[in-house]
Amino acid sequence: MNGLGLIAASVAAGVLMLAAFGRFSDQAAVRKAKARVWAHLYELRLFGDEPSLMLRANRNLLAANARYLGLMLKPAAVILIPAALLMWQLDRVYGTRPFERGETAVASVRGERPVLTPPPGFVVETPAVRVPSRGVAYWRVRATRTASFEPAGNADVPHPPATVAIAGVHAHWLVWFLVTSAVTMLALRRRFRVTF
């Protein structure tokens, strides 16, 4: 599956997340909290042979980390719903692929008298296995050619997971999304004057 659209969406998401962090976080407080975290990390290295100072540095490091994470909550909350919607849409586009010839899957249909009518390109290989307590029946289906299972009724058939090829490297779309958006944020953080 071609990944140019995925890369474009990932870069755009990285830019928008960066803008959201800049807009909805207290950047001065973030810089101060980050500096405190680093200071306490240096304390741990400097006072490695002083148990009391090490305990104090650990306690202060935990407090500084908690403060830093607390400052990230507001921008993270702002980003959460749009990011979830974007990832849901990307999963619909890039998450699965059509069945190849010979691949099988388990189809399920809910209802009192469930019936499975496979679309062209698929055959039903087994009789129905009914689970009355759940109101569902299961069948094994097999692809007779490369095709997507798009039934006319309310059947549910999980499609095989897809990989996205970029520069000859195949990986799950979420890997490409996370890597590309993170690289975008790191590359542009100075231009946006954002610390995170």
Protein model, in words:
The protein is an alpha+beta fold. The chain has helices at residues 4-24, 27-46, 51-94, 173-192, and strands spanning 104-110, 122-124, 129-131, 136-143, 164-166, 169-171. The strands form two sheets. Strands 1, 2, 3 and 4 form a four-stranded antiparallel β-sheet that branches. A two-stranded antiparallel ribbon has the order 5-6. Strand 3 and strand 4 (136-143) form a beta hairpin. Helix 1 (4-24) packs across helix 3 (51-94), helix 1 packs across helix 4 (173-192) and helix 2 (27-46) crosses helix 3. It is elongated, with a radius of gyration of 25 Å. The model has no long low-confidence stretch (mean pLDDT 91).
Topology diagram in text:
Layout: H1 4-24, H2 27-46, H3 51-94, E1 104-110, E2 122-124, E3 129-131, E4 136-143, E5 164-166, E6 169-171, H4 173-192
Average per-residue pLDDT, rounded, comes to 91
> What general outline do the C-alpha atoms trace?
elongated
Between the first and last Cα atoms, what is the distance in angstroms? 33 Å
How many DSSP helices?
4
Low-confidence stretches: none
Q: Percent range for helical residues?
A: 40-55%
Q: What is the tally of beta strands?
A: 6
Order of helical and strand elements: HHHEEEEEEH
